Amino acid sequence: MKISTKGRYALRLMIDLAQHDAGGYIPLRDISRRQEISAKYLEQIVVQLSRAGFVTSTRGAQGGYQLARHPSEYTVGDILRITEGSLAPVACLEHEPIDCARANECITLDFWRGLYDAINQYVDSVTLEELVNNEKNTLNFSI
Questions:
Q1: 72-101 exposure pattern, b = at least 16 Cβ within 10 A, e = fewer
Q2: What's the pLDDT at 104?
Q3: How far is residue 143's CA from residue 70's CA, in Å, rounded to a whole number?
Q4: Is 101 helix (H, G, I), strand (E, B) or coil?
Q5: 3-class DSSP state of 25
Q6: Cα four-point dihedral sign 89, 95, 97, 100
Q7: Which helix or strand (DSSP H or E) is residue 131 part of?
Q8: Could you report the per-residue pLDDT of 107-126, keeping only the tens digit for each?
Q9: Going by C-beta distance under 8 Å and a sequence separation of 6 or more, which residues neighbour residue 43?
């Protein structure tokens, strides 16, 4: 499994919003500059985050974006699923119930389920707040 740049940049954008929250809206160009990510690319990502209710926005001279909730209310898994979709390691696990003609005799299905469960458990155990608070410390999360 590989997380795309869109997923990684969405996480960086959300961290930036949490780090620079002073009660107001943060212009996308400021995030773009700090994160060294194209403003055009961030615009695509922030639209997805906005549609999901993760960020709010306002237009105008004081416009920009802010988190819709407290950073403790977002998990890394929540953020990645917005931009990446399913985090399933194999296609047959992307939908429930499993729609695979070979599911009943698949010897590897339990292995893939276990890996998928481990991935979800890990990404859902880390909050945005924890990432922000651990920015200068070495993260020590384990599965």
A1: eebbbbbbbbbbbeebbbbebbeeeeeeee
A2: 87
A3: 25
A4: coil
A5: coil
A6: negative
A7: helix 128-133
A8: 999 999 999 999 999 999 99
A9: 28
